Amino acid sequence: RTITLPNGALLSGRTYYIQKTVAGNNMVVAAAAGETINGAASKTTATQWQTMRVTSNGATNWFGNLLAAL
Prior knowledge:
Layout: E1 2-4, E2 15-19, E3 27-30, E4 36-37, E5 42-45, E6 51-56, E7 61-67
């Protein structure tokens, strides 16, 4: 499943938490066209219950990290 983030330039400081709840398949979090997440177009996890936190810098970058699965 792929989740595409909204335009970060319109959401300065906004943080999203996205959790992979289904076993199997990867969860892909993609930046909007022309934007990046930590310098990449997308980030992927295959671990069930893992959460990704992403925060917009108000321009073209999202800063994200993976949080431990509980």
